[in-house]
Structure formats: C-alpha cells, structure tokens
Amino acid sequence: MRMKMNRFSAAVAVLAAATALTACSSGGGGGGPTTASGGGASNCTNTIPKKDLPVVTMWGWYPNMQLVVDNFNKQNAEVQVCWTNVGQGSDEYDKFQTSISAGTGAPDVIMIEMDRIPTFQIQNALVDIKKYGYDAAKANYSEGAWKDVSVGDAVYGVPVDGGPMAMIYRKDIFDKYDIKPPKTWAEYEEAAKKVKDAGGPAFGDFAANVSALTMALQIQKGAAPFTYDPAQQSSIGVKLNDQASKDVLDYWGRLAKDGLVGTQDQFTPEYISGVINGKYATYISAAWAPGYLTGAGVGKGEDTGKFAVAPLPQWDAANPVQVNWGGSAFSVTSQSKNPELAAKAAFGLYADKESLTHGWTNQIIFPLNLQALNDPEFVNLKVDFFDGQQANKEVYVPAANAYKGVTYSPFGQYYFDAMTKQVSALIEGSVTGAQAADRVQEDVAKYAKEQGFTVQ
Hints:
By secondary structure, this protein is an alpha/beta fold. The protein is built from 19 helices and 14 strands. The chain is globular, with a radius of gyration of 22 Å.
C-alpha cells in the first residue's frame, strides 16, 4: 500500500521552491464546464457525465479514487467533481505549496493527511467548513476523527481514513515459544526476553524512520506534544520531553540495547524481507497495515495463515488509551471561489456505501465514516490476511471508537525529522531516551521560535 509509505517520508517545506504547476482548477479549457474555482475542467482524469452542472476540482491519490468520483458524480444532482492525481505525499504537497505562494493553481478540494492540516491552515490555504455542512455530517464520524481534522474550534477537513493501532503478530512464533498476546508493554518486554532466551527472533522493531509511530506511543503513555489555538497564532505549546515521552524512549531504547527488538528502518525491502522470513514476532502498526503488507508480498506463499492481530499493549491496563497512526481528509482550499459547493463535494466523496465497501473489502483504507464502522459486513469481516480472524470486530473498530484525537502542530514534519535524528542516536547508543527527548524539545522549540512563535 504505497500511499502509506509516503506518509512517513513526505517532507513539506513551509516555503517550497517555486516550480511550474498547471492545476486542473486553473487550466481553463475552451468550452469545458466552469469550476467552483473559476477555471475550466478540461483536463480531468475522469469523464464528467452531467455537463450542465457546476464542477469542483479535486486532487486525490487513493487507488480507487476513479470509482469514488464516478459514484459521486452519478449520484449528485448539484455538482460534479473533476479529479486529478498530481502525486501523493511530498509530490502533492510541493505542488500545493507552490500554488499557495502563487495565489493560484490550487484545486477546490485537496486530499491531505491529517497531520499536515495545520501546516497549510496557518498559511490561510484551507477553509473552515464548519458552516458548510458540518452539522449535518457531524454524526457520521467519531469525536477523535473530527479532532484530528480540526485546529482549535475550526474544522478544516472531512475525515476519510484512519489508522487505529494494534499489534500484528506471527502465530507460528507465538505458538513455538508458548507466548500469549501481551496486554501491557511490561508483558511485551517479558515475552521478548523469553523468546530471546530461547534463541528466537527479535520480538519487534524500533525504527528511526517512523516518528509518527513513536509519537503515538508517547501519547498513549500520556504525552501531549503540542497545544495550539489558531486564535493565538503566534503562540504554541511544545512539550516533547515530559516524563511520558522520556519513559517511552527509554523503554524502546532498552529493548533495542538488550537485543530484544530490531532497529531496521521500516518500509524498506530489507524490513519486509524480515517480516516475510519470520525475523520479527510482532509488528506494531495501524489498521492500514494488512493492505500495505499484502501489497508488499507478506502473507503469501509459505507466509499464508501465519498472522493474527491483537489489541495494542497498554502502559496501564486499568486505563487503556487507544492511539492512531496515519489518516487522510478532504479539505477545501481557500482558492475555491465557491467553498460551499466545494464542501458539498468534500462531504459527499467516500460517503456512499459502494465506495466505502469497495475501500475496505480491497483493504485500500480503514474508513472513518460510521456508516462503514457500524456495518455488520465490515465489523464481522473475516480478514484473509489474518487467516479468517474477525480483526475489525475484535481489535480495530473498538480501537477506532475509543480514539480521542490529538492536536497536531504547524511544523509537524520538522518535529518528525528531529525525532528521527534523536531516535537514530538512541539506537546507536550515544544518548539515553531521556536525553533524546530533551534534544528533540530543544531542537523543535528553537525552530518554533525561529518561525515567529512564542513557545509555551
């Protein structure tokens, strides 16, 4: 599932280099339909069936976007969508940044990862859609999903998919070493020691290139990395070296030092080869992982039927906290000349049963629309990757329902890069977990001040 790989490597420069961009919304084409942003819709990837209706331009990257857009256009009698895939991750974000700097070239609606919303919101590139249909759609998504697309009280996106986290594990390895799925991180460490002492494989992996995962585990422990209110745009709370953050880095640093987990960068051929060959007993990841792993060749051939999933281990079993890794939304851009019409498309895309069902049956997304999460077919689905286990019912849906959301920062990528640098040092043994957290705090706070923020 290539889109997910880009989630962890995409870098969005706040001041991107100016590169040429011809966007669907600005490339006016002769006698084509008029778009909500004022341009023509002559270079759509899709064919617009109802040419007498106004057109909303959109950038999106999911593999089944063609089906989703066609479904929307077929069902809608007020507006049509002109869809273009300009790339994903940094490819799309660089183009969007260029259009922001130029003041033209952006689409009406853009698919954007939730943790990137504040980066563009602070540049006034996105529209608060709270007055354009939010009240009618509010009940369609959970509290946590809405929080992830919000900045303060304003809403800057319609949730599409998410990544409630869990622990994927190898049944054959657990059976061989008589291990039961650990319910706490203390039990996880104990199981890792048992397997190592018996000459078994690494119990998991602590990688430097998955800072979003590290952040999620720190939040699970009680960390609140950022506090930000757009009503006070020049002020931000940065708290990256609290005790919870230090404890999590110390924990994983210890497991790595003791050889209980590997330290291979994830989303690489080497890592995937290790997963296929049983080098790791567990994979701490999100609900999109089965689709990604299947696409990468895991769970096939000799691997078939060897994987299962269990709830994410907890720091405190008596007070469980569910966290999320990844997720996308449809946002309305400030260059749209008809944000109300654009919002109608954003709320309507990936909201019909056929599109949602196609998404989850093909493991393209883990939907956040409650129409899907409450669908008995989805809840009771026997997942092939997990040898017929009802993973949604047992693990992912409860985790999604219990997730409360987080506050992202306007410079999330810089934070992730700073975390990667210090986790690399932690893995190398040149710093402790606590020292790594202190260095991340110092680095990110300094950067925030350089960007004109007062750091709280």
